[in-house]
Amino acid sequence: xxxxxxxxxxxxxxxxxxxxxxxxxxxxxxxxxxxxxxxxxxxxxxxxxxxxxxxxxxxxxxxxxxxxxxxxxxxxxxxxxxxxxxxxxxxxxxxxxxxxxxxxxxxxxxxxxxxxxxxxxxxxxxxxxxxxxxxxxxxxxxxxxxxxxxxxxxxxxxxxxxxxxxxxxxxxxxxxxxxxxxxxxxxxxxxxxxxxxxxxxxxxxxxxxxxxxxxxxxxxxxxxxxxxxxxxxxxxxxxxxxxxxxxxxxxxxxxxxxxxxxxxxxxxxxxxxxxxxxxxxxxxxxxxxxxxxxxxxxxxxxxxxxxxxxxxxxxxxxxxxxxxxxxxxxxxxxxxxxxxxxxxxxxxxxxxxxxxxxxxxxxxxxxxxxxxxxxxxxxxx
Length: 381
Ligand SMILES: [Zn+2]
Known about the structure:
The chain is of the alpha/beta class.
């Protein structure tokens, strides 16, 4: 737990009282706003995110109800596409063998990536690369990737086109961030390359239903997290974390390149095999076919599962809840809704629960979400 320095108990108590007063004030504003909203009922339009208007959206519309808010009115696709399972979030692989997967993200520095690839090759190891799509257009990158994939058995997976937190983007942009990176990998490799793993920018949004829905639709096998970020660790920590099934995250910075030059030979000397994520998780290698430009498939419809949302979550449905809370006057944010379920959102949910006669937990459970979003629907109908 982090405690701010220099805060006396008296000031903390004052802060608690002040927060209590703020909450009551917020609740009062909510009640007032809810009654005012009823007057605007006819003026509000429900936004059920169809494929067409998703494509037309360029920026989040603060005055429109986002897809999640209208989830109940999004019908299940006739072919049953709405039912899907969340993909696994992979932090480590099987501990049965002395194998680890070293993954390298972003790939801004081509020269360093070359050094890292050479180091792995000298160790007889394989890497899993998660380049940002834009970086694939850098001179020398395509050649490096072809060498890695076709000569050394490396894997190239997806880390978005432009390093975006996709859980908060409008649907069409979310889809494009994933799709466009895959197309860039195809172009670089000169083949149609079936990717299996997606890494979230900053690791945020693991529980985002919309992301899982689209990745599942495209045939991805999982979201790739990690057991240790080597970028945030020193050599001693990196060595201590060496265990069967470990998934390491590195980048192509100068510091990480130096760490990898030391760590890869070290791991091999300890009897570890450096394998790809496919190998570590028992997946078949990424299938390769003849190169062909492909059109981006529109995300299939899905029904919001209303799973509990709580402090620390990042998800598109949180954007929907924040928009609804802001419309009710329960939440004030600068700029567009963030999709981050932080303390402000938790307090706003608690305030909404209080005026709605729900248990005041600050956790957006299914009933809270239903009431919050129904409130908006009712206002619109
Ligand atoms: Zn990254």
